[in-house]
Structures are given as C-alpha cells and as structure tokens.
Amino acid sequence: MAFDIDMIKEVYSQMSERVDKAREAVGKPLTLSEKILYSHLWENKPNQKFTRGKDYVDFAPDRIACQDATAQMALLQFMQAGKENVAVPTTVHCDHLIQAKQGAVKDLKRANETSNEVFDFLESVSSKYGIGFWKPGAGIIHQVVLENYAFPGGMMIGTDSHTVNAGGLGMLAIGVGGADAVDVMAGMPWELKFPKLIGVKLTGAPQGWTAAKDVILKVAEILTVKGGTGCIVEYFGEGAKNLSCTGKGTICNMGAEIGATTSTFGYDDSMERFLRATDRNEIADEANKIREHLTGDQEVYENPEAYFDQVIEIDLSTLRPHLNGPFTPDLATPVGELGEKARKNDWPIKVDWGLIGSCTNSSYEDLTRAASIAQQAVDKKLIPKSDFGINPGSEQIRFTAERDGLLKVFEDLGATIFTNACGPCIGQWDRSDRKGDEKNTIVHSFNRNFSKRADGNPNTHAFVGSPEMVAAIAIAGRLDFDPMNDTLINEDGEEVKLDAPQGIELPELGFDVEDNGYLAPKADGSSINIKVNPDSNRIQLLDPFDPWDGDNLMGAKLLIKAHGKCTTDHISMAGPWLKYRGHLDNISDNCLIGAVNAFNMKTNFVKSQLDGKYDAVPKTQRAYKAEGIPTVVVGDHNYGEGSSREHAAMEPRHLGVRVVLVKSFARIHETNLKKQGMLGITFDKESDYDLIQEDDTFNFVDLKDFAEGKQLTIELVHADGSKDTIKANHTYNATQIGWFREGSALNMIKKQNKA
C-alpha cells in the first residue's frame, strides 16, 4: 500500500519545472541533493543561488516521523500551537520504550504494562491531530519509514538523528529536534543552513565478507565524528548501483555518526525493486517518469570535484571488513588487525555478546546474511562462545523471516529474539550477565558505541560491524577472530572454517504480515480530549519558557566545564531515563550527569558557588535556579554530538542554564538550543576554553546589542578578582534572535497565531 500517494504525485508533478529553474538559477548542472533542496523551497521559486554553509533557507518538507521517546515532547509542544490538525503527513512510532530482557513476547507485554500511560497519550494525540500511529512492536521507526513512507526525491524531517536512514531510498531525510517538527506540523517553514556537499564515489562491488556497513565504517574513519557537520553526503558511481536499497539505508543511517546533515543515493534499479517488493508499485511507476531528476546530473558525476566541496573515492572491490570502536564510531580497524590493537590498548579480547539489529541493520537482507553464518555454525557443529540477541526491524520483516525459517536458525544457535524495537542500541537492555562496572567487550551491528550507550556500564567496550561479521565474531567469542583466514574447533574437535556470507536482497516469496501495527487517525479528532494526570510522573504539560528581558546577562555562574566528548547521551542519558521523556521536570534530574567535569575529571560532581560544596549537577543547578542565579555550561568540540533529543537542550533551559559556550557544536544540538531560547555560542579563540576557572562569574556585557553577525563580549571574573575578556561567536540570524527574545521558537509561534 502506498501511503500519501496524492502528495507524492504532487511532488513529482512539480519537480521537473523546479529542477530546470534551479539549474538556471545556479548556472550549472546539479547534484541530487541540490535538486531536492531547490525543489522543496518554501517559496516554491528556485530563482536564486544559495551559498553553501552560509545562507539560511526556508524549506517545505513533505512529511514528518517521530519516535515515541521524542514524540512525547514534540506533541506536548504541538498541543500549545493552537492547530486542529498537522499540516503535513506525520507518523508516530513506538520503538524506544521497550526493554530487551527475556524475549519479544514477554518484553512487549511488560512494556505495554509499564508504559501504557505514554502509549495511550501518544495514540490519543495522534488520533486527534491526524497523525498515523504505529503501535509498540510494529517496528523500528526508520525501517518502518523505509518500508512504507520513504520515496525518491522527497524531503522529510524526523525527531531522531537516524531519520537519515531514508536516504537509502533517495530522500533527503533529516534529523531534527521536536521544536523543528512542531514548526512544520503547524504549517510553517523549516529553516536550515544550506548544506555543503560531500561526494562519495563508489566503484566496484563488495566481495566476500565486505558489506554495505563497511562503506560507512570506512567513511567514518576518513571524516571522523565531526567531518560531515553542515554537509550532505551524496553517494554515486557504479559501486552505488551494486548495493541494495537497504544496504544504502545502512550507509545513510550512520551518516549521523559523522555529523552529516543527511546522506543520500540517486534513484536506481535497487530502489525500484524495493518499492515494488513493499507494495508500492504506483510510486515506482511515478518515479520512473521523472527518473533523470531523481539522481544527479551526468556532468556532476563525471567531474565531481567541480560540483562537490569534498570528494572521497572508495573501491568496494578492495574494501576490507571493519570493526569500529570502542567508545566512538569513527575508530576503524580492519578485521584481522583488531587483536593486536586490543592487546596494545588492554581491551578485553573475549566477546560476551553479539547483537544484531537496530535501525541500522535489521532488514531482511541483513538477517539472511547473518543467518547464513549462523546456519554454518549449526551445520559445522560450532558452539557459540558469546550470547546472541536479535532485533528484527519491523513486524513485516519478523513475520517474513519467521515464515522463511531465518529466526529458527538463530534460535537453534541459542539466540534470543527480542521485540521489533531499538532495545540495546539505545540502552534499553536489562543485561543480566553483567553486574556493576565490570570490564567487558560486545560486538553489535548498531550505529553508536559511546560509553554506557548499550548497558549503562562505562567499561563495556562496544565494537560496530556488519550483522554477518557480528555473527562470526560472536560464534568465535573473540575480538581477534578473522573469519576470512582463521579456523575454529567444533564440538567434535575438528578444525572448521566459515564460508563467506550469502544474502537474499528481497524475500523470494515476497513480504508478508498479519498485523503491521498501524492505526490510522480519526477522520475528525475534534471530539477527542487529551487528558494528562497532574500527578503523573511520566507525562507533564509544558509551561512556556520566560522571554529575555532585553538586558545584559550579568553575574552568571559556571555550572560545569565539560572535558572532551560531551554527546547528547552525556547531557541527557537514554536507557532507564527514557521513561521520563514526557516529563520535563523529572527527566531534568539526568541533566549533564554524564559530562566529565574538567576540574576533577569526575562525572556528576561539580562545585557550587553558593556554598563551595560538590554535588550532583542537577541538584547544584536547581539550587542556583532557586536563588535566581543564571548559569553557564562550557564545553569542548562537537558539543551535543549524537542523538537529536531536544531534552539535552530543554533540560538545562528548564533548570535555569542560560548560556552554552563551547569550541564547536553538533548541528542538531545547536539548533535545539536556539529553538528553546538558549544562547549557544562558540569561543572566538578556542584557547580561551583554558581561561575558564571553576569559580568564574560571567558577565555578558553587550548582550543587549545582540545582533546577526556581531560578536559577543564576555567578561570573566575569577575568584581572586582578576578578569579576562574574551569574544564569542554565534550563528543566530534575525529569526533565531527572535526566538531568543521571545524565550523559545514555540513562544513565537503562539504569538504569531494570536496576531
């Protein structure tokens, strides 16, 4: 079934004219990314050339997707916007609040019991405002979107950083915070700085153990976790055509790990096959009519250096399988070389778990490739040395995989089949085999491997690989195992070797499902009353943030100077805290508890300037708020890397933090801070970070003159009375300064609606 086919037909009917006008405005051939961007301008008139990395541009996305953890805050904000219905097709997917523990049936039952209040809230709000609702167990948001909503040449935004997964079907799909989604739901333009473009030319075809996952693991090594910031990564070349649609999705998915705005591929035969296999023949037929506009112009790909800001070339025929990690997704090591590196760095060689699934690698093809390795283990009488966990991507995939015997292969190997949900990938994992902070190693096919990410243990060394490589290493139970060259001893004492994986791109008997988990909204939701128990500890209606008083900000105290990597996981942890995503005050008790204090190298232990004592960050900040004292958070490079969760911006704002001053921001987090009325600024001189002392007071002496393109001056007053004056930069435009003045972007929306 093709959802929203009339909308898609309208996009396609206008694309030829808009692409032609854009090409004329730009004055040269266009990349695919430019075609989609220019054909989705809010004003519908591609009559000017925008400067990459500089111009802020208003866009009109085609649709929105929200997962349950972020949807709560997004919908709580939308409820204040005064609208009767969402302005563009929108869906909510319940995939984050299901903990992996005993297996799919028991885990889903427990989730429906413990989080029923949240699920009921999301379902009722969705039905009221015309939002499609996918029930718990229906699947992981990004796989469900790929199977049902993604379409070549479209633009979508989603309240999850891995929304970019839909680039595997030729979209520009971009992760945003909930406030951005609210703008579009309310019928307003969505603002984005026009991205720079990175072209990745792929040649050859993957061989043997090399998978699509290895492409992005290699790209992550090349670009690092911040090398894609402010950029769209566009993949092209004959090698791209040798990858499946879901393989392309895997590559785009992990583009979030290099900070990229999004990633995409041009429309090709693999995408057409996937559309038809997922019962969307009508979309494939329409896409074929404008096929030349759903990929970059030929001149671009023949001479990419003239059209992209950076070009990378990867030969898939020679690309080796990789494992990335631990603790960062850009630390890449070719399989076979990891043993030496692990011993040198004292990483545990023994592997305790192999986890297959997540939004990155849970397609039918992924399961077949991993199952081909698992079947060999069964046939060759190998006893796995590690535990196995499997998360299918959707109920459609699970049902089809069960029908085709794939799940039984894993079960014969002793694997636990978890719910069609995120599970361990986002810390929703009740890991019974580990206690405390014991040092250990796991391998998984997920996208992120930050400290504490999967199980809350800072000493879990997590390595990212393809599903088939995860299966092989889990069977061997050793990080230094190289399935391409090494052998294993089976239960008969025989030496056996694993053959290269074999995958099936699409099920030979077609996809099948009895209940995909979708609930359509009511045609008229005006009679639905959304009730929130004022005593609930899960859902809390929002109070607007206070507007800026227009004066300079004086006497602000340092809350924390964060050392090194400070991701959204450090600012607002997931795992057990996910249950409070709809209750701003409760979840604020995790605010910055994972950030490392630069003055004592401890987490959740900062000095209060009220009494000189050290205590937890949230408790210390609540004391400042009670006294009416504004505070400042100082950070390092790429501050806010990782998830799109706007809680990492809303929590400090709620608790009274006024300014975040860092060396550099991750894109989504910087936008989230702006949307919530925070002052997010960067050091003009990065070395000024070193001037910040533990007892500092900050005076923003010219904030009352806050203006686009104008630096801010900060007077640092140290405990001994000495002072330093530093400069800070910002990227606020006139509209964003308006958000700051009004207290938040949502406040501005409400003000405009009343006017």
Comma- or semicolon-separated keywords:
755 residues; alpha/beta; Aconitase, domain 3; Aconitase, domain 4; seven-stranded mixed beta barrel; six-stranded mixed beta sheet; 25 helices; globular; metal ion binding; aconitate hydratase activity
Brief rundown of the structure:
The protein has 755 residues and is α/β, with parallel strands linked by helices.
Characterize the structure shown.
The chain is of the alpha/beta class. Helices cover 31% and strands 17% of the residues. The strands form eight sheets. The chain has a seven-stranded mixed β-barrel with strand order 22-25-26-27-30-29-28. It contains 25 helices and 30 strands. The mean pLDDT is 96. It starts with a helix and ends with a helix. α1 packs parallel to α12. Among the domains are: 322-496, Aconitase, domain 3 (2-Layer Sandwich); 553-754, Aconitase, domain 4, CATH 3.20.19. β19 and β20 (495-496) form a beta hairpin.
CATH superfamily of one domain: Aconitase, domain 4
* CATH class membership of one domain: Alpha Beta
What is the approximate shape?
globular
CATH topology of one domain: Aconitase, domain 4
* Strand order, sheet with most strands: 22-25-26-27-30-29-28
Q: What gap, in angstroms, lies between the N and C termini?
A: 41 Å
Main pleated-sheet profile: 7 strands, mixed, barrel
